[in-house]
What does this fold into?
Amino acid sequence: MKTIRKKSRVLACVIVSFILIQNPEGLFAQFAGWENIGCTNSVSCMVRHNNDLWIGTPASLIKMDVLTGKYTLYNRANSKLPYNGVTDILIDHDQNIWVACETFSFPGYSALVKISDDQWSVYDFTNSPLNSSSICDLEIDQNNFLWVAIDPNEDDNVLYKFDGDEEDWLAIDIDSAVNISTPLINSISVDNNNTKWFGMGMDGLISLNDSNDCWEVYNTENSGIPHNIVNEVEVDLENVLWFSVNQSSLMPGDVQGLVSYDGSDWVIYNDTVSGNATSSTVITSIYVDDMNNKWIGCDEKFMAPSSYTALNCYDNQKWTIYDSINSGLIQCPVISIYQENDNTYWFGQTATYSYGYEPGLVKWEVQNNTWQSYNTNVSGFTSNIRWGTVFSYAKINVTL
It folds into this structure.
């Protein structure tokens, strides 16, 4: 009987392992004995809504009470979240929460979830134009319209304007409006004049004033942009545009870094001019806080671990570098940033090149200069929320 027992356990492990490898997105926990556990090596996005910090990861959506530290994990097993991979979260002017989610499989699918007073509404390929494998970016304009950029497919549009109240989708044919080579939108931002700015995959910057359908294209031939690959785009409190260019780790030595545009002047920030570390790194995030400071998340894949810069901050006069020596950040890229108040910041890191460290969520209390990490080494984040190295798994309690 002992031999049979061992064989049964091995067989059970093999079956469960096969299920997890073949279909990590399709795990459900409505069967007795199964416990669904969300795992991640990345905090992709976050936003504050009342006392809750909503956190997006590649494996789940997490709601954490910033006052008590208590958290709730949402995934396909226990909520209406259609896919576990959360790539973007934002709050509209009516305090609705919008969540972009997708699969990490082929073929892939994406969806939007609207959370309003605990009511969840799902928009996917069955009731919307969202049949792409990825939602590239979300943005809310001053009129509370949701702008959605998706990956280009052969027969699909890449940009939509959505009226959440009327549930009306308007396709924006950017490919026909302007002369571009590739209809790939990496990022969307809205300035103080309600002008939409699009960071393009191969065609620089494009602006749209949709009140009069006025389009403008800015590229290396007609502007001060140093490269036509534009990724992160943000607008600061003085209506200055900040964006990253190129950012390809496959082309070291090529033009890359941070650029600002105030409507007349283009400024390129590099090590020589500003003393920051943005031109020698891949910029993974740009965030503007309530004091108009610019926070730049970095990934120095070609630098030694001892000199790894995770974060830069520009206060409009000087740059401050945060690394694993002078902060609680580890030697991993910062891919999401959020300011809770004047004294508290949150940073999400990922493990694309972690040098053996475990990433996750980092909280910084500025006044006391205290840093708190939330990862697999922290008590309370090892059961339903695990900041680990796989996307998702399930645990089955079997008595053999």
